[in-house]
Amino acid sequence: MGLENEFEVYIKELCKQIRNKDVHASIKLEISDHLQTLKEEALLAGLSEEKAIDQALARMGDVKLLGKQLNETHKAPMDIKTILPVMIASLFGLLAMYYLQFHSTFTEIQDMKVFNKSLIFYLLGILLMLSLSMFDYRKLLKFSKHLYAGTVLILLITVLFGVRVDGVPFLILGFANINFTEITPFLLVMSFAGIFHSWNWNDSRKSWLGVGILAFPILLLLTTSAIATSIICIIGCTAIMFGSRASLKQAIGFAAAASIWQIFNLLVLSQNYTSIDTKVIKNLGASDFIGNSLNLTPNLISEVHTDFIFTYIVYSFGWLSAIIAFVLIVFFIWRILSAAKSVNFNYGKMLVIGLAVTFASQIILSILTNLGLSPLPGVAMPFMSFGGSHILLEMIAVGLILSIFRRRKAADILWLDVKNNT
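== FtsW/RodA/SpoVE family cell cycle protein ==
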């Protein structure tokens, strides 16, 4: 065995003590560099190479003891502060679906098993979330362009050939009708985080190319009546530009240009808007702080299980329940934004910020619509509104966030270099 191989054996034994394999690459580089420094110090002191290596290993300490200490330092536990509000908010949504199906007249006018279907979606979503939390999100980086191309292609197919309901195209797959436009913001943010994590916005050619990449799916959405979705996409794209170090002028210019047509649409909607025939304000005003009714009048509000689930929670369970649900989601968004500061890998940081902004935009627009303050239809409440596609993708997004937080201390480019060389 060569003398230098003693270092390799030491490092290999050390890594065996560390369960979090995501930090092995960075630890190998760090320990190897430290051992080499100790060896050079011993050589300068006049020791032979063999004795210098022995002294370096001795100064590093017992491999098992050091390994145990590093294992404690680099543990990657589940982020309870992130997952807990999501689970409680999901329970709110599931409880609302239960009462809608079994304790309201909702099912008398629409034969929809909203609770049964929601239970399946939530269970599958939680399984995906937990599975992705264990998955190394960094492996998705190289597929960012593929995800973007796939999202744009499916969106194009949906816009051209989808069945339109109130102007919004649905993708028909035979076994299910999917509101693909609703989940588009999440998919775009996931792809943009990888495409723009090291983008050079100072290069004029790349700057225009970047604007084109961001704008194309928004232009597709502008051909539909999915106004809320396009607004969420515009906000998400602007956040990605800021996160990838575009100038303030570039980001504001993009947001302003992309918003012109939607501002016009909002003005048109506002002219014909009567606060959902005044039923929202009327019934919210009649709601108690604790709750006054679990029996929903059939003609109360259309789409109560999707767009207006927050209104149903207020009306049926009271303002206290609605406030708790709102606070939970706001805490979730605040939590992931604050924790994003500690993420070393820029791709992971941009992914967290993009998803947080998407969730935040969704909840703000949903609350405004439910309070009768916005004319925008079709805004699902995160984790609570009925719908399989958006629930599953929201849980996938949370799973990716948990995966990022588990690996927040992992190296940035060092990790990629090591992976590429092995």
